[in-house]
Amino acid sequence: MKFFMLVTVLTYIWLPMAQAEETPLLPTIKVMAESELREEVGFIPFQQDKTVRKVLQHKIMKNEQDIQNFVVDGSIREIDYQPIAAKPDMSQLSPALQQYVLAVATGLQSSDPTTGLFTMLKQFGIDRSNVDGMRSGTVKLNLDPNLLQQLKDNNWQIK
Q1: Could you say which residues form the signal peptide (predicted)?
Q2: Domain range enclosing 140
């Protein structure tokens, strides 16, 4: 019985030792220069898969033919990207005020929109020569009472 116990104990001690010696090695990543990699792997020529190449060529040709054979639906006649703006009705304005509004609008639509702004400010004595004084806040405005009365007569709101 003692012998059997001794063999059992030795077996239990030896068994884990035998298993510990047989651990598998895991793959590792090794940093190599290109020349070292070529030495280890060797030269591998490029191998092109001909069936994949034919399938890709066929798909490209089909896409090109689809683009070339595209047909526009005949039901679409005309597309308006920007609607035509309605012309303003200035018949209720006096002829002088109509000319003034057209001069301001023409100035604003020109290549230099400040022309329209200075046309508006001309009534208040502001032009290109004294605009620098306005930036510093030193310009005085002298309002013409006739202009104010004309604006009131044409239903302009003055505050």
Answers
A1: 1-20
A2: 113-159
